[in-house]
Amino acid sequence: GHRITFASANDRVAGICIIAPSYNPHSHHDDWALCLLERRVREGTITFERVDIETLPPVGTRVALTGYGCAFEGGGIDGHLRIGFSTIVSRPPPTEFRHDPSAIYSRSNVGQGEAYLCPGDSGGPLFVMGDDAAGPRYIVGVNSRTTYRYGVSIFAALAAPAGAQFVRNFIDMTG
């Protein structure tokens, strides 16, 4: 029942969003939401990505993080979209974190120019992309949470059983 408005160039589209019923606000497990738009978006207004609910990115996969959060620990949110890269690390999670069956983890070396999530990035897409930046992008997760101390970003995996089921139920419900 949450309302949202998407804006792109000269177009604005409103939508109603639902949060995954399995979302846990204390642990942030199953951190997904989907929105049904009030009308079709004009072709060319918004670039469409492929949402992948079938494939968990394997360890070692280079992923693109995006968001409007801060640029450094303790930094403010300035409204600028940032894109950076990181690498998926093993599941189960690094030992510093409790087990989350719906999570994908990346560990970044900021000194090497890699990115990690920052407060304000939550809800944005996690992409797997080919070597061609203009090529297809696959949304494999949703920005969920971060820890600066370990350089770890945590994403809600769309191909986790609960994530894939949430997406399928949304499609069935909205037609």
Report strand %.
35-45%
Tally of separate helices: 1
Nearest-integer average pLDDT = 85
Q: Output the helix-strand order.
A: EEEEEEEEEEH
Distance between the termini: 17 Å
| Low-pLDDT residue spans | none
Could you describe the largest sheet, including whether it forms a barrel?
6 strands, antiparallel, barrel
Tell me, what's the shape?
Answer: globular
Number of strands: 10
Arrangement of strands in the largest sheet: 5-6-7-10-9-8
The level of helicity is under 10%
Radius of gyration: 16 Å
Structure class = mainly beta
Which key phrases capture this entry?
single chain, 175 residues, mainly beta, 6-stranded antiparallel β-barrel, 3-stranded antiparallel sheet, 10 strands, 36% strand, globular
Which helices and strands, and how do they pair?
Blueprint: E1 2-8, E2 11-19, E3 33-37, E4 50-51, E5 62-67, E6 82-88, E7 103-107, E8 125-129, E9 137-147, E10 152-157, H1 161-174
Parallel strand pairs: 4-9
Antiparallel strand pairs: 1-2, 2-3, 5-6, 5-8, 6-7, 7-10, 8-9, 9-10
Can you characterise this structure?
By secondary structure, the protein is mostly beta strands. It contains 1 helix and 10 strands. A hairpin with a 7-residue loop joins β8 and β9.
